[in-house]
Amino acid sequence: RNLARLHMAQIHYPLIIVQGYTMDRSTAQSLADFVSRLSPDTLKGIEAVSKSRSETLPLAALVLERLLARTQPKDMVTSIYGVREGLLFGKLKKRVRDSDPLLNASWDFAKRYARSPNHELELCQWTNALFADDKQPETEEERRLRHAACMMADISWRANPDYRSGRALTIISQASIVGVDHPGRLFLALAVFFRYQGINAKHAPREFVDLIPEDWLERARILAGAMRLAYVLTGAMTGLLPKIKLFVDGKKLVLDMPKKLSDLYGESVAKKLNQLAGAMGLEAEIRRG
Question: Which of 18, 56, 110, 275 has a CA 20 to 30 Å removed from the CA of 130?
Fold first, then answer.
């Protein structure tokens, strides 16, 4: 963990979260070789290194160097957990051990922060059709991240509107969650940031944007557009989204509303639908009745 913090400080990494921090083997080997040659007194003068670890860190770096040389992994991923946590984890029921830690944490966020947690579950299902089309295919991991983002989508509703996007970005990017790497963490944070700020927002933090793939950034904006449309339709009330369909039909993004809910369609809904369709390169269409 101290090696990861040291590397973050060296490269001025913008997200100081040890959990899930990844270095390729070559970088990790170079770092381990460098640290193994430093004296404890030198390490004590480095702010990123815990002074209590300065005596043993060169030895730990040497062990890591030998381990990387022997195992030849593609990457080294840092965990905040160790033997103690592993021992406790092994004592949990198999059902708990087999559950998804990211989705569990996201559901916990929904229960604590959302106006209606069940609405967030509906949002997960509602956006399934949007990403089932060939234009927006998703992997199982991308689907998992989308569902996690949906469960966190209402995280800032209590804040002043001018601060909701920044609050969401801070809470999610810095959350003590596991089961996700740094690009995935930032996908979640940016999706909810755009949900509050607008999908065409130009001032998302560049240092975060640069850490995720370009196609994930586009996907975050599209997901945020679907979230914005959902909330203007429902006001976070449960029971409405399952009755309203959003799907791709050829070159059109279709919002299909039953006749009894057609009065929900208005200027705000039309604006959000057109924005989302534009982000997907499609033409918006409303079907009622």
Answer: 110
pLDDT tens profile 97-138: 999 999 999 999 999 999 999 999 999 999 998 887 666 789
Note the CATH number of domain 2-89.
3.30.420.150
What DSSP assignment string belongs to 172-187? HHT----S--HHHHHH
Query: What tokens appear for 122 in the block?
Result: 């509906």
194/240 Cα distance (integer angstroms): 23
Helix (H) or strand (E) holding 217: helix 214-234
Give dist(CA 271, CA 254) in Å, integer.
14
pTM for the predicted model, two decimal places: 0.91
Q: Which CATH code of 2.70.70.10, 3.90.960.10, 1.10.3210.10, 1.10.260.40 fits the domain covering 101-288?
A: 1.10.3210.10
Distances (CA, A) of 187 to 172, 196, 202, 285: 10, 14, 16, 28
CA dihedral 280, 205, 177, 157 (to 10 degrees): -70
Beta strands at 283-288 and 252-257: parallel, antiparallel or unpaired: parallel
Q: What digits encode the pLDDT tens for the residues 153-182?
A: 999 999 999 999 999 999 999 999 999 999
